[in-house]
Amino acid sequence: MQKTITTTLLLAALAACAPVLADEAASSAVAALGERIFHDTSLSSSGKMACSTCHDPASAHAQTNDLAVQLGGPDLATPGFRAVPSLRYMNLNLPFFFANDGTPTGGFTHDGGAKDLVEQAHTPLLAAHEMDNVNAAGFTARLGRAAYAAAFRAVFGTDVFADPERALLAAEYALSEYQNTSREFRPFDSKFDLFLQRKIMLSAQELRGMVLFNRPDKGNCASCHTSTRQADGQPPVFTDYTYDNLGVPRNPDIPANADPAYFDMGLCGPFRTDLSARTDLCGQFKVPTLRNVATRHVFFHNGVFHDLKTAIEFYVQRDTNPSRWYPLDANGRVHKFDDIPALMTRNVNTTEAPYNRKPGQAPALSDAEIDDVVAFLKTLTDGYDPITNSADPARSARDVKRGDE
Amino acid sequence: MKHRILALAIAACCATLALPARADDATLKAEMDALRAEVAALKAEVEQMRAASAAPVATSKPAPAVNAEPVPALAATTAPAGGGVDSGYALGANTTLWGYGQLDYNRPTARPADARADLTRAVLGFNHVFDESTRVYGELEWEHAIASADDAGESEVEQLYIEHALAPNYGVRAGLMLVPIGLLNEHHEPTQFYGVERNFVEQAIIPSTWREGGVAGYGNTDSGFQWDIGLVTSPDLGKWDPTSPDGRESPLGAIHQELQLSKAHDLSLWARLNWLGVPGLNVGGAVFAGKIGQDTSKQFEGDANFPADNARLLLGETHVRWQSGPWDLTALYTRGTISDTQDLNLGFLGQPTPVPKAFWGGYAQAAWKALAWNQSSLVPFLRFEAFNTGAAYATQPQGFGTPALPTQRVWTAGVNYYLNPNVVFKFDYQDFRYDDELLNYGNRFDLGIGFQF
Fold it and tell me: pTM for this structure?
């Protein structure tokens, strides 16, 4: 609460110090500063890490390597705790709230701990395993030496660097403006978008995959990854911004998991602390957009899988073939839901399709049907070129930027 | 084929009802002459009252169609055999307060855990007469007892319009009005229909209580015709949610706007013609037609392609009702189409509820006032309904088409017990052709209480 008030006051102060922000041109200047900050590796203790290092536009603003968690800090050797989410379409997200039926909804980062894009930028700038500026003073010292420091002063006030908290917040605000205003973060130019616009037709396999994706008795993917337009005509973002507990297997590639007492439980902690008493929410992570999912290098919050087909196989075979996904315990039994404390395993979603099955039953999707769903999901990649029938998020970012110019 | 059988049944019903009228023309003519004499006498009385008082005459009739229907035919063509007495509470010389309420209990025989008791509706209405030719009419409703952000109830304005009589037998209205289609939509008070719940056809196909905002004209002729025309807001196809069962329960109920910040780029027309020339008989029909895309494609930045901007709705309805002695016989058929849904549904492939291109329903009902004493009466009834909210879907690429939904058929047998014409207790049993838990379709017992004042 205190942090919220402080943030609000600081934003108000920023507005007062920089009345020029009121017009569109000034907003554009803020966004331009945000773009420079986004790509500036000098703002990290290593001098080699920027926002774009992990959120590369060419990789749909997500990671470019196969690591489960990225390495940051002064020597780029300090491991993180969670896989990198894509920033594409993130500006369409909602602030965190509980819906009328109690469903946690919205919020930024895997656990919704950040209420908006401004807050979302905070942790990566300071965290020891990321850009490692430690505090506002550390960040502001580096920002003050940036090539665009004068432009930063011109926009946010000549004395902005005298108050590190204010300067840090101004930088976070600039980053959020960049993401909010640049269409490279929401190009809506995938093959599926062109299909929705009736400019092209999907192949028979892609259509089959779409049907399987939507059907409540098959993939049932659309029950969380919304595939229909919103009432205002906005194309689908393939998330309903809610949270779910899928019982994803523990990933030994995350160094923190070497401690058997350590569990990343999403909404109820350890990074988010305001819902730690809500043990019923333990293990729930935010439903991500599936746009550009075929370009991801790792899947789920802990990056445990490395290809899309395996991730879908996990969905449909988790309960029919649990031995494929979980280790054996000391008694030789499958230790299902091994990345959640034993008392919390009841929180795992076992009621909805395709999880509502038992060992030995047929999975909701056959191998061929999974291939169809993969084919459909590939139509969600930005930067589709109908001539070559290929998609490239980098092309999308380039074209949008050219359009913006 | 089944469709045709239902249409033939309705036609046969119409023919059967019409025969006695032809067979007994002399008696009817005598009755008509007597009624005309009564009307003339009443007109004379009204003129005398007008002359005696400068104050305007306030009508106490709650039903909006009152001024549009020939007076002798009103009670006999809009109310069930046991009820429908006009009432209301006069608040001064110019304003009348009226209302009705409905409380239901439903108990599915196969799923007793789904039994529900509900204060279905509580309604207050008013009628304020400004002068001899102008009035404002309103209906305010609360559904399911409690309406708040955390409760299931709804609070709504069902009607609010100004009516101005241009002549004794025709006039204009403007505001939020009930669509004059079918028999129930305008006369939906629980004393006005048989059975605890409104019939399915006039909920699933005609989404009672269906209202739109706009302007309308109404009138009647000496020969017994009642007519209505209107230019009003349209449903909004952009509201269609293919993941929800709402569109399967009632296609138009899922997309009508109820003048709640209604998108108004596209408008619709309605027209109705009834013939009430024979006491006790109401035969006629209505259409509602218009575009329903609402130019949705222009509403989201950069993605100007809602694929059903040109979609059109056409809903037609025909009915006959014959009230004679203790009998009250009704048949109604309605069918709707929505065009240009092919591309929209292509984006919904695999979703449970695509947009239908055709939907229809019909029912036949017989009620018999078996007992009557003092102001009370006992009216058993039997109703058969058939309806299909997804009778056909637009063509899709080979192998990806949507099959038509199965036609639902419901038999309802029950009794309305009128303690007096304005207070009714109801009981019925409903037998469904197939269960549908999602839509709450399944054999059940129903109990109900209704009243109006």
Answer: 0.82
